[in-house]
């Protein structure tokens, strides 16, 4: 599947240029498949920028939002999805609606995505950043390879 530039913009927003998207059309197709399944389940999502340059990854580390230099965002194998809270109409970046995140992650896992959002007991799984602090990466989903 070759992703058109228009579809890429619809999926990923203006921030992602077509060259980046063309580098991973299979990934984009997997994202599209997931977003459609979520919408079918009544979950709308805001899609974050999915490809990071090494400099952008370093910025994420410096801001405490990532704990690794080997992020799958560097190879276009990860994406951040934020459920839209139906009561506010706004994406839930803060993880207030864990129920929506749990349903999103369950559906994503069913399609082969990996998540670090929850422990096996269903409680949020916090990650450690380079500053030694803890953060929750509930919207992060990634594929292997
Ligand atoms: Zn991420």
At a glance:
By secondary structure, this protein is α+β, with helices and mostly antiparallel strands. It contains five helices and seven strands.
* First-last Cα distance: 19 Å
**What does the largest sheet look like?**
5 strands, antiparallel
Number of domains: 1
Low-confidence stretches: none
Q: Which series of helices and strands comes N to C?
A: HHHEHEEHEEEE
Over the alpha carbons, how many angstroms does the gyration radius reach? Answer: 15 Å
Q: Would you state the CATH class?
A: Alpha Beta
Mean pLDDT: 86
CATH topology, what is it called?
A: Muramoyl-pentapeptide Carboxypeptidase, domain 2
Beta-strand portion reads 15-25%
Residues in helices, as a percent range: 25-40%
Keywords:
single chain, 145 residues, alpha+beta, Muramoyl-pentapeptide Carboxypeptidase, domain 2, five-stranded antiparallel β-sheet, two-stranded antiparallel sheet, 5 helices, binds zinc ion
């Amino acid at each position: 599947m070759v992703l058109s530039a228009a579809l890429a913009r619809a999926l990923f927003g203006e921030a992602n240029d077509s060259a980046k998207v063309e580098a991973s059309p299979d990934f984009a197709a997997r994202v599209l498949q997931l977003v459609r399944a979520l919408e079918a389940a009544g979950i709308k999502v805001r899609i974050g920028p999915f490809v990071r340059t090494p400099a952008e990854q370093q910025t994420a580390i410096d801001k405490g939002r990532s704990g690794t230099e080997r992020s799958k965002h560097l190879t276009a194998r990860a994406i951040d999805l934020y459920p839209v809270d139906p009561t506010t109409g706004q994406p839930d970046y803060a993880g207030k609606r864990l129920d929506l995140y749990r349903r999103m992650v369950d559906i994503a896992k069913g399609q082969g995505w990996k998540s670090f959002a929850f422990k096996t007991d269903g409680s949020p799984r916090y990650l450690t950043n380079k500053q030694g602090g803890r953060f929750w990466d509930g919207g992060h989903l990634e594929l292997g390879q």
